[in-house]
Amino acid sequence: MSSVVLRFGDGNFRPDYKFLSYDKSKFENDWNSSEHSHPYSEILFVTGGKGSFVNGGEVRPVETGTLVVTNPYVAHTEISAPAPEAPLQYTVISLADIYFTSENSDEFLTKSYVFDFPGHRQEFRALLAKIDAEIGAKKPFWQAAVLGAVNELLILILRLTGLNNFRAEEPLPMSGAGKAVWLCSRYMETYFAQKITLDFLAEKFFVNKYHLIRSFRLTLGCTPMQYLARVRMAHAEDLLKNTDLSVTEIAAQTGFSSASRFAEAYKKRTGKSPLQAIKR
């Protein structure tokens, strides 16, 4: 089984993401405001007007100066305020292989983050203006200059919001089945110590549990719960070999319901008891 494919930002910004696009949008009558998702992150700055940002049924007001951070595969949409309010306008930066979360939180798989920093709006405007100028002039090395400004924006966002950045070390899948497997496997790899059931995963990620089982078997050759057991065992084996924790402590830290359940699973996997492998 492969190791965990996510690397926690641990307070250090790593600019090894992929810069996909820089776009500007303004509400028109043909604007489609249905929720959607995509396999990349978005940094959205409201540059004019008022409206709402919708994420998972939660509606939050946005206006000039609002910052929105949306992770891959998180369903969302923007809605402009009706006339006579000024139409909603925003700039959006799309980034691949990077996403954001508050520490010790699973929200990065389901939630967008909405912020407003009135005292720092000028900093955001200046960096966006710098990007606009470089794209408009296209002087030598303008692409590098744009990336430099995007890095500055990301650092400013991380400093102001307290979010951390993860990096995906593998391409994110585009298909529906691949998306469900990616979301659930990443969740289990990150939160394996918590109580996780098939029904829980199906409800959390809005997927039929039987479809999820089929998708896991086709993609990974096992069921979701078998994958979870492998993840837990891999972490338990590492703790057995590299720490002085007791079997009971290891079982508790890796999501096994009891030390006896862990011992049974370990012996079935290795032919040995945990005590025979534990570090002395």
* Strand neighbour order, sheet with most strands: 2-8-3-6-10
CATH topology-level name of the largest domain: Jelly Rolls
Taken from the alpha-carbon principal axes, the silhouette is elongated
* Secondary-structure content class: alpha+beta
User: Which blocks of ≥5 consecutive residues have pLDDT under 50?
Assistant: 1-11
Helix % is: 40-55%
| Beginning-to-end CA distance, first to last residue | 26 Å
How would you characterize the largest beta sheet? Answer: 5 strands, antiparallel
User: Average pLDDT value?
Assistant: 84
The appropriate CATH architecture of the largest domain is Sandwich
Number of helices: 9
Radius of gyration: 22 Å
Q: How many DSSP E strands?
A: 11
User: What string gives the helices and strands in order?
Assistant: EEEEEEEEEEHHEHHHHHHH
CATH superfamily of the largest domain: Regulatory protein AraC
Q: Would you kindly provide a written description of the structure presented here, covering whatever features stand out?
A:
- Helix 7 crosses helix 8.
- The chain is elongated and about 70 Å long.
- The chain folds into two domains: 6-167, Sandwich (Jelly Rolls); 176-277, Arc Repressor Mutant, subunit A.
- It has helices at 121-137, 142-161, 176-190, 198-204, 209-220, 224-242, 247-253, 259-270, 274-277, and strands at residues 6-7, 18-26, 41-48, 50-55, 58-63, 66-70, 76-80, 89-96, 98-101, 113-116, 164-168.
- A hairpin with a 2-residue loop joins strand 4 and strand 5.
- By secondary structure, the protein is of the alpha+beta class.
- The model is unreliable at 1-11 (pLDDT under 50).
- The two termini are 26 Å apart.
- The chain has a five-stranded antiparallel sheet, with helices on one face. Strands 1-11-9 form a three-stranded antiparallel sheet, with no helix packed on it. A three-stranded antiparallel sheet has the order 5-4-7, with no helix packed on it.
- 40% of the residues lie in helices and 22% in strands.
- It contains nine helices and eleven strands.
